[in-house]
Amino acid sequence: MKELLTEWRNFINEDLYGSFDRPKTDQGMRDYFKSPEATIDNLISEVLNEAEQINAFINPYDSSDLEGEHWRGEEAKEGPRAAMSDINIYVSNWFENHEVQEEDKSSAEALKTFVDWLNRNVEEMMDLSFSEENWQEVISSKPHKILQHIVKNEPDPSMLMSLGPQLDKF
C-alpha cells in the first residue's frame, strides 16, 4: 500500500495539486481528513459530493442557464476550480495521514484513479462548457458524460470501484 501513497505524493508534487489553489472550505473541513476518525468511505463520499458540485457548474441542466455572461470567461471557472482544490486537499490530507488497510486497498485505488482522471479532464470540460461554442459539444463530450454518470442521482462509492479500470484508460 506504500506504493499507492508514494504514487499519490508524486502526483501532488507534479504541481497538479497546486494548479487549483482556491480552497473554498474552512480549515476544519480540510483538517478533518487528517484526523484518525476519517475513513476512506468518508473521503470517497466527500469527493463525490464535490464532484457533484463540479458537475452542477459545468453541466447546466437547462439550456437557458447558458444565457448571460456568468457562463463565460475565467470567472465562471472559479466554482469548479474551488471544488477541485478541495478534492485535492481532502485526498492529500487523508493519504498523508492514514495507512491504507488491506480491506480498503481497492477503494483507495479507485478513488485515486477517479481523482487523477478528474484532475486531467476538469480544465478541458470547463473550457468546453464555458466557451462560446455549440452546447451540443458539451452534451456529446465523453468526460462530461462520464462525470454525469458517476454523480447522477445519489453518488455511490461502489460506482468508483466499478469504473476505476475504465477511467484509468481514458
Q: How are the SSEs ordered, and which strands pair?
A:
Elements: H1 2-13, H2 27-32, H3 40-58, H4 78-97, H5 105-129, H6 135-140, H7 142-151, H8 157-169
Explain the overall architecture.
The chain is mainly alpha-helical. 65% of the residues lie in helices and 0% in strands. Helix 1 (2-13) packs antiparallel against helix 4, helix 4 runs antiparallel to helix 5 and helix 5 crosses helix 8. The protein starts with a helix and ends with a helix. Residues 15-24 and 62-66 have low confidence and may be disordered.
Query: Could you tell me the radius of gyration in angstroms?
Result: 16 Å
Unreliable sequence segments = 15-24, 62-66
Here the CATH topology equals: A middle domain of Talin 1
Q: Based on DSSP secondary structure assignment, what is the total number of beta strands?
A: 0
Indicate the multimeric state.
single chain
Q: How many alpha or pi helices?
A: 8
Main sheet overview: none
Fraction of residues in β-strands: under 5%
Given the C-alpha coordinates, what overall shape results? Answer: globular
Tally of structural domains: 1
Q: What is the N-to-C order of secondary-structure elements (H for helix, E for strand)?
A: HHHHHHHH
The overall pLDDT average reads 76
Q: In which range does the helix fraction lie?
A: 55-70%
Classified by CATH, the class is Mainly Alpha
By CATH, the architecture is named Up-down Bundle
Give a quick rundown of the structure:
The chain has about 170 residues and is mostly helical. About 65% of the residues lie in helices and about 0% in strands.
